[in-house]
Write a structure and sequence with these properties.
The chain contains 12 helices and 8 strands. The protein is α/β, with parallel strands linked by helices. Bound molecules: 2-phosphoglycolic acid.
Length: 250
């Protein structure tokens, strides 16, 4: 049985005061343990505060929003996977559509980042999804299939079992336009089937999260789909009540 996972992607938002308040609200609302996995992905500089506030809560984990492909060295401005581990991260988001579009991350770079994460013991949450133009041109499966294959080719079967996938249609991110549960389920099932052709065990156990304007009001309809194992939450993760509402739908 795959556990529901709700991951909060705070993107480039917050300050010390708002981050502390948000963490306190989430911790208080969730309690010490539960039957879902909750992952908070703050901007890097808030990781020490997140680690300190969440470390005694077993259902709560935290992660980075990005990492470099190298483990150390002369890469000014970058953050390496082992540094995330140093602050207790268990997860890292890889290949978010904002990284792909604003920072030119190719399918190959995304695959290399997923490999770098696994190399140092982080679970990559690998994002993929089509733009509106691609959906309208009926290219969703082609695009998502290509993004998925790049990662699958780079990682072996065993590594795939330690990865999480997030399907995030680009047109639904931060727009208020959520994919319907049926639209999302169709792509999630496609991802699982494609994976299962070569890596049946990894496909069965793979947590495939949906992201794109998830709110407390639409979360349970999405999470009740057979191939949707949770969510990657952006805007609604910046409000403790909204985030908790989504967690409780899991
Ligand atoms: P959103 O963002 O929930 O604000 O649409 C999701 C994401 O970017 O991961």
């Amino acid at each position: 049985m795959r556990r529901t996972m709700v991951a909060g992607n705070w993107k480039m938002n917050g300050n010390q005061v708002s981050v502390a308040g948000l963490l306190d609200g989430v911790v208080e609302g969730l309690g010490k343990s539960g039957d879902i996995d909750v992952v908070i992905c703050p901007p890097f500089v808030y990781l020490p505060m997140v680690a300190e506030k969440l470390s005694s809560h077993e259902m709560l984990a935290w992660g980075g929003q990005n990492l470099d492909t190298h483990a150390s060295g002369a890469y000014t401005g970058e953050i390496a996977g082992p540094m995330l581990r140093d602050f207790g991260c268990r997860f890292v988001i890889v290949g978010h559509s904002e990284r792909r579009s604003h920072y030119g991350e190719s399918d190959l770079i995304v695959a290399e980042k997923a490999a770098a994460a696994l190399e140092c013991g982080l679970t990559p949450i690998v994002c993929m999804g089509e733009t509106l133009e691609e959906r309208e041109a009926d290219q969703t499966e082609e695009v998502v299939g290509r993004q998925l294959d790049a990662v699958v080719v780079c990682l072996g079967s065993e590594a795939l079992e330690h990865m999480v996938i997030a399907y995030e249609p680009v047109w639904a991110i931060g727009t208020g336009l959520t994919a319907t549960p049926e639209q999302a389920q169709a792509v999630h099932a496609f991802i699982r089937q494609r994976l299962s052709a070569s890596h049946a065990r990894a496909a069965e156990g793979m947590q495939i999260l949906y992201g794109g304007s998830v709110k407390p009001g639409n979360a349970s309809a999405l999470f009740s789909q057979p191939d949707i194992d949770g969510g990657l939450i952006g805007g609604a993760a910046l409000d403790a009540d909204d985030f908790l509402g989504i967690c409780k739908a899991g």
